Amino acid sequence: MHPDTSATALATNAATAVAPRLAALAPTERGALLRALSGVLHDHTDDLVHLADEETHLGTERLQGEVLRTRVQLQMFADIAEEGAYLDVVIDHADAKAFPVPRPDVRRMLIPLGPVAVFTASNFPFAFSVLGGDTASALAAGCPVVIKAHEGHPRLTDVTVGLAATVLPAGCLTVVHGREAGRALVTDPAIQAVGFTGSTTGGRALFDLAARRPSPIPFYGELGSLNPVVVTPAALAQRGAQLVKQYIASVTRSQGQLCTKPGLLFLPSNHDLSELLATEIAQVNSTPMLGPWISEAYRATAAELAAHPAVSTISSTLTTSDSEHTHEDSPTLLTLPAHDLRAHPELLRECFGPASIVVTYDSAEDLLATLKELPGSLTATIHGREGEDEQLSQSIWFTQRAGRFIWNDWPTGVAVTRAMHHGGPWPATTSSPHTSVGAAAINRWLRPVAYQGTPEALLPTPLQSKNPWSIPQSLK
Amino acid sequence: MHPDTSATALATNAATAVAPRLAALAPTERGALLRALSGVLHDHTDDLVHLADEETHLGTERLQGEVLRTRVQLQMFADIAEEGAYLDVVIDHADAKAFPVPRPDVRRMLIPLGPVAVFTASNFPFAFSVLGGDTASALAAGCPVVIKAHEGHPRLTDVTVGLAATVLPAGCLTVVHGREAGRALVTDPAIQAVGFTGSTTGGRALFDLAARRPSPIPFYGELGSLNPVVVTPAALAQRGAQLVKQYIASVTRSQGQLCTKPGLLFLPSNHDLSELLATEIAQVNSTPMLGPWISEAYRATAAELAAHPAVSTISSTLTTSDSEHTHEDSPTLLTLPAHDLRAHPELLRECFGPASIVVTYDSAEDLLATLKELPGSLTATIHGREGEDEQLSQSIWFTQRAGRFIWNDWPTGVAVTRAMHHGGPWPATTSSPHTSVGAAAINRWLRPVAYQGTPEALLPTPLQSKNPWSIPQSLK
C-alpha cells in the first residue's frame, strides 16, 4: 500500500468510528462544537494569517478578512444546527379516512450521510479550506470530515487541523496529503460524499472516480466559470468610464484568482473605452500569484487565448514584467467581436488569474445569440438601466446558464446568507442543485429517512411529538 | 442514424422548444394541466385497464386501484404546483449594517432543469409509467418529459401518450421506444435529468452513461432492494402465526413483482413456524408474471439461490407447476442461518418475483452483525413489542441501510404523502437523497437560482415583493 493511501485508511477508520456519536449529538452540542472552532480561529488569527501569507502571498489584509468570514460561516452553521429547520421534519399523521386508501403515520427527517471528504481550495486557505464552508456545513449536518490538503498551503492545513483537534472529538476532522491519498479518499467505501473546489480538469477526474465506484457517491465540485457580464447601451452611455474602473478592479481582485472573476465583458461595439481599458489595466500593480503551478497555468492559458487569430490584445505583458522567482504576473485583457466568439467556442474556457475578454456586440440579437452559446457559469451579470425592457429581456437567458444573477454589481464577493446560491450548470459545478456558499450548503451532506407507524419511544428525537428540542415540524 | 435514435432527436427537439413556455406558466395553469391529465385517466379508465391487463396480466382490480393512485398523484402535484412552497423562495433583504460586510438584496428560488427523460416501469404500468409519479412531478416542476417506453406495455404507453396530447401543449410529453432510443435519450445534450425504475444492472448501465456525458446530468434510478424484515422474539411469541400469514401475503402480492417486497425475513432460530411457512406458501395460487423476460429472470435467480449449498428450501416448485405459455410461476421460499448469510454475501441479491429468504438468528448480536452487512434497501422493518428496548436498539442500524423504517407493518404498499420517502442507499437507488414517491419527488427536477440586487420589474414573479401569486416566501 502506498504510504499516502494508508494515511487515508487511518483517517476514514477514525471518521467511521466517530460518525454515530457525531450524528447523535443534540443540536446545542453540535452548535457548541462549531462555535468552539470559531473561537480557535479567533484566538490564533495572527499566527494563522502569518503562516497563510507565507504560503499563499494573498496579503494579510485579505487573509484577516477571510478568517473573519470563516468564523462568521462557522457561527452561521452553529445557528443552523441549533435551529434544526435544516432537518426538514415533515409529519403526516395517520388518516384512516384518506382517499383512496388509509394512511399510516409517516414522519420524515434528514440524517447525516456519514463520513465525507473535503478537497480544499488553493485560493481560499481559510474560507474554503480546513474550517471553511464545506467543513462547517458537513459538521453541522453531523458528518465527520476527512480533509484532502491542497499542496498550496500544507503547513497552514496541518496547523489548523491540530488546533481543531483541541475542541473536536477524535476522528471528526482528519487530514491527508498528496494526490494518491486524495484518490484513495474518493474511492474509500467509508466516504459517502465529496466536496471539492478547484479546476475543471482535476474536478472531472475525481467526479469520474466517484461515479465509477461500485457504490457511487455524490461529488459536489465547484469547477471553472466564465461569469459573463453584460453592459447595456444605456448603462454604457450613462456610466461607461465608471464601469471600466469597476471591471478592472473585479478582474484583478486577489490577482484574478477567484471563481467569480468576470471572464467575459459584453460591451456595445460602438464603445469608445479602448484607451481607458488599456490605461486602467496598466495601472494595476503585479502581485505574487498563489504559487508556481497557478502562475504557469495562467501564463499558458492567457498566451494561448492572446495568440488566437480572432482575438486582439488590449493589454498583455506576460513575457516581460513578471519574475520567475516570485511568480508575479501582470493582467491580460483581450477583445473580440461577439460573432467571432460564437465561431470559436474553444475560446470559452476559464483562464484562472487576472485575465478577461471584452466581447463587443452589434445588437441585442447579436448579444443574445452569443449568450445562448455560453457554458454554465456560477454567475451572470447585467449592468443596465431600469426601463430598458427590450434590451433586458435576455436576462431570462442568463438564468438558464448560471446559478446567481447580479444586477448592477460585480460577481466577485459572495454574500454568505440564507438565500445565496453559489452553484450553476456544468462546468461551473458538477451538481447544479447544490451550493458551496450559504446556508443551503448543508443539504449536500444529508438524506431523508421516513419512519412509518413508529412508537414515540423509538422515534429519533426530532420526530417525536413531544419535540424536546423544539425542532420546527411541518404537520399535515 | 439508427431509426430509434432519430425518434429521440425529434422528441428532445420538441421538448426543448416547449420548455420555456412550460417553465413560464403560472402555478394555476400548471396545476390545471395536471388535473386535466387526471381527468383523461378518469374518462378512459376501463379501456386503459383492459389494455394494461392484456399486456401485464396484473389483473383488473389491481390495475383499477393503480389508475386511482395515479390520478391521486397527479392531483397532489397539481396542489403542490399551485401552492408554490416547492419553489423554496428565500428572501434576504439588503443589510448595510451586516457583519463583517454589508449585504445586498438576495432572493432565491428553484427553477426547472429543462427537458427530462423518464424510463417507465414494467410492474406499474400507470403509477410509474407515462402519467406516473416521475412525469407528474416533472411537469409540476415545469420540465417537459420524454418517456422511454417499457417493452412490457408498449401499446398502453402509446395510447396514454396520445390521450395526454389532447390536453398538453405539444412537446410536453413525448415517447420513444427501444433500447437504442433510450441510450440516445440519456446522452442527448438537451436532456437535463433522468428518472428510472428498473433493475440494478440496467439502471447502472444508464447511470454510467449519464455520468460519462461531456456535461454529466443527475440520474435518479430506483433499482434493486432486499427490504429486510426483522421479527423480534417477543413478537414471535405473541403473534408468530399471524406474522407468517402476513409475510407470505406481502411476498406474493402482485406475484412479488414489487420493489418493496420483503426479500429477507429474520426470525429467531428457535421458531417453530417451518411447517406453517410451507403450508401457507403452498396455498398461494400461481398467477401470470409480467412477461417472459421477468419470468425467466425470476426462475434463474431463484434456482441459483436455492442451489446454494448454504441454503435450504422451504418451498420451490419452479420446475413443475408453471407453464411456458402463460409464464406462471410459483413462489420460492428459502432459509438459512444468519451466520451463513454473513459468510456468503453473494446471496444478498434481489430476486424480483415471489421469492424470499427466511434468515434465522441465534441472538441479538447475531442479528445485529448480519444487519450491518446488508446492502442499502428502500425499506427496513421491525415487528416487535414496545418495551423490548435492548432488542430494538438495532433499529438505529436499520436507518443506516434504508430510506423508510417500518414498525409492525409490511413494506409493500407505499403511502403517497408529503412525508413519504421512497429511496435509500445504493443499490436501492442511485441517489439516496431523492425519492420517487411522495411530494418531495418534485425536488429531482429543480435547481436554485439566486437574484442579487435585482429590481422588482426584472424579478421572476415568485420572488417579487408584491407576490401576485401568493407564493410562500421565507423572509430573513
Structure commentary:
The structure is a homodimer of 476-residue chains. Chain A contains 15 helices and 18 strands. The first copy, chain A, is of the alpha/beta class and 476 residues long. Chain A has two domains: 268 residues, Aldehyde Dehydrogenase, Chain A, domain 1, CATH 3.40.605.10; 180 residues, Aldehyde Dehydrogenase, Chain A, domain 2. A seven-stranded mixed sheet of chain A has the order 11-13-14-9-8-15-16, sandwiched between helices. Chain A has a five-stranded parallel sheet with strand order 5-4-3-6-7, with helices on both faces. Chains A and B meet through helix 4, strand 1, strand 2, helix 8 and helix 15 of A and helix 4, strand 1, strand 2, helix 8 and helix 15 of B. Strand 16 of chain A pairs parallel with strand 17 of chain B.
Describe this structure in a few short sentences:
With 476 residues, chain A is α/β, with parallel strands linked by helices. Helix content of chain A is 39%, strand content 18%. Chain A has helices at residues 3-24, 27-43, 45-56, 60-83, 133-141, 154-164, 179-187, 200-212, 233-252, 274-282, 292-307, 338-343, 364-371, 389-392, 395-399, and strands spanning 89-92, 106-112, 116-119, 145-148, 173-176, 194-197, 219-222, 228-231, 264-268, 287-288, 312-316, 328-329, 332-337, 355-361, 377-383, 402-407, 446-452, 473-475.
